[in-house]
Design brief:
Blueprint lengths: L8 H19 L4 H8 L16 H27 L2 E3 L12 E3 L9 H10 L2
Antiparallel strand pairs: 1-2
Helix pairs in contact: 1-3
Length: about 120
């Protein structure tokens, strides 16, 4: 029998916030292809004058995007600060390359948390 993952109200609140951010991000329009074109239109003041139509979803995303990106960057740095390698101690058959474990969760290095961050950032 699996334990209910939403029994912790803090986890449920965080999960709900993350899902809201993800849903809002997925509904907004990507500007990735437009930015290459727009960067060539930079004026002498360093700005690109644009006229565009933005949907309600685009505005909702843009209104919080900067703060949410900063929050996720801070979260990732804090997770990396927690999940750092340490030598596991004990006898090793290769003293030049000892087995390392995560300081926080004691998994073999790199731990699942660090691997998940690495995979997300290297997409």
């Amino acid at each position: 029998m699996k334990a209910d993952r939403t029994t912790d109200p803090r986890e449920a609140r965080l999960r709900e916030r993350l899902e809201t951010i993800r849903a809002r991000s997925e509904k907004s329009t990507s500007w990735r292809t437009s930015t290459q074109y727009l960067s060539r239109l930079m004026n002498k003041d360093g700005f690109v004058p644009i006229r565009t139509r933005l949907s309600r979803e685009d505005l909702a995303f843009l209104s919080g995007a900067r703060d949410e990106v900063i929050t996720f960057a801070e979260l990732s740095v804090r997770l990396l600060d927690l999940h750092r390698p340490q030598e596991s101690g004990g006898i090793s058959s290769d003293p030049d390359n000892p087995i390392r474990r995560c300081r926080a969760c004691m998994w073999r290095w790199p731990c699942p948390t660090v691997r998940a961050i690495d995979e997300a950032l290297n997409r």
